[in-house]
Structures are given as C-alpha cells and as structure tokens.
Amino acid sequence: MTAEPRSLHERIIAEIGARIVSGEWAPGHRIPFEHELTEQYACSRMTVNKALSQLAQSGLIERRRRLGSFVRRPRSEAAVLDIHDIKAEIAALGLPYRYELISRQVRKAAKTDDFASVAGLVELTCRHFAGNAPFCFEERLISLETVPQAADEPFLEGTPGGWLLDHVPWSAAEHAIRARNADRKMAEALAIAPGTACLVVERRTWSADQLPITRVRLTYVGDGHAVVAHFSPNGA
User: Fold this and answer.
1) Is pTM, for the whole model, over 0.70?
2) Whether residue 115 sits in one domain with residue 65
3) Backbone phi, psi, residue 209, to 5°
4) What Cα–Cα distance (Å) separates residue 224 from each residue in 79, 82, 105, 199?
5) Res 75: pLDDT
6) What is d(CA 124, CA 13) in angstroms, rounded to the nearest whole number?
7) What's the 3-state SS for the chain?
C-alpha cells in the first residue's frame, strides 16, 4: 500500500501530478489559480505556493506571471539531448517533411525487449523523409501499462514521437549514441549503400512515477546528422 503524503503541500503535489501524468490534464491545461486551490484544500496561500513551486521545479508545470500555472512538457535537465519531434527537426532545415508508417503491432512484452510492460507493447517501425530522401529510420516500443491510449492510436498521420510529446508527460530520459555500419536491411530503408556509416540514437523515457513510457532507436545517415550538446562550468 502506498503511504499517504506526510503534509498537505505534498498531497497537493501528488494530486496535481497524478492528473498530469494520467493525461487528465493535458499540456497547456491551466492549473486552478492559487486562490482556488486555497479554497479547495482549506489551507494557506503559502502552502499552495510551495506546492506549485515544487511542481514547476520538477518540470511538470510552468508558472506565467499574471496568467497562472499551466501543464508543460516536462524535460529532464540532466539529459544531454533535448527530445525533439523529427518533423520539427526537418522543418528547421527548410525541407519538406514526409512520414511513412511501415509496421504497427500490439503484442506482449518479451524478455528480449529489455522493456517490461505487464499490459503489453505497441511496436512501430517508420521512416521520416526530408524532401525525397530518407532522413531517419525509427524503431519504437511504447508501454501500454503507462500509455494505454496508444492501443487505439493508428499512428498513420502524426509521428509517434510528436504524439507522445503532446499526450504523455515525461520526467526522465536516457540517451545512448553510437556508430554503426548499415546492414542490408538498414541500407534499403535509408536508400544508402550497405556498410555506410550511420548514427544511432537510442532513447528511453520514464514517467513521474518512474514507469517506462517508450524506447526508441533512431538511425540516421552518418554524414547527414549531428548531435550537439551544450555545457557550462557550473553544469547549468
């Protein structure tokens, strides 16, 4: 049994956080104003302010002066890379974008997936095009335990990454980057010669409850993509 929050401000954090993580409050949803929460929880404004401040620090909400607090897309400041929608990435290059879903299936999780989900997985493969040329080959697993609504999403129009960013708040991410030479299957998918150098970005994301959301492997042609990270002496 989960222990009850030890204080009222922790209860406010837990209840607001649960509504965000469950998708009840989607990105952009306005959180009740401080005076509304003060009345709802019969507490001081200082208690509500403390709870909202901690939610903002965790990345679940953003506070806008004179406008209130809103659900945001949480980001992990410890991640080397930001999580971008590939469509926006290609648009930034000034090239037309096209998305192609190759396969989609709902299945049970296997030990070889290294991605546990009691409720099963949505497995997707797709390609992203910049102009007429393949830009990225995507292989993705989505946990139906954490994201049950993915079972009904066909992913025929919008990209899986963009859909997840719009529907599922995340609190932690892990990136792994490596080089690999294209095998015959990958060479065909990216319209390159077998043996061509590719850049592979593997990423996992977790919810605020530390439940796995998705695991994705993105393969780019090596000379057509770069990974950039920004650092400062104080780690900011």
Assistant:
1) no
2) no
3) -90, 10
4) 23, 19, 30, 9
5) 39
6) 34
7) CCCCCCCHHHHHHHHHHHHHHCCCCCCCCECCCHHHHHHHHCCCHHHHHHHHHHHHHHCCEEEECCCEEEECCCCCCCCCCCCCCHHHHHHCCCCCEEEEEEEEEEECCCHHHCCCCCCCEEEEEEEEEECCEEEEEEEEEEECCCCHHHHHCCCCCCCHHHHHHHHCCCCEEEEEEEEEECCHHHHHHHCCCCCCEEEEEEEEEECCCCCEEEEEEEEEEHHHCCCCCCCCCCCC
Given this model, what pLDDT does residue 233 score?
54
Residue 77 lies in a domain: no
* pLDDT beneath 50, residues of the chain: 1-3, 5, 74-80, 234-236
Long-range contacts of residues 66-69, Cβ cutoff 8 Å, at least 24 apart: 68/30, 68/31, 68/33, 69/30, 69/31
pLDDT at residue number 125: 97
Question: Which pLDDT score is estimated for 5?
Answer: 47
Token pair belonging to 118: 């009691």
CATH number, residue 21: 1.10.10.10
* Confidence at residue 43, expressed as pLDDT on a 0 to 100 scale: 93
* Surface-to-core class of residue 12, CB atoms within 10 Å of its CB (0-12 exposed, 13-18 middle, 19+ buried): buried
Q: What is the rounded distance in angstroms from the CA atom of residue 213 to the CA atom of residue 127? A: 21
Q: Residue 109: how many CB atoms within 10 A of its CB?
A: 19
The pLDDT value recorded for residue 47 is 92
What is the domain count for the chain?
A: 2
Same domain? 22 vs 127: no
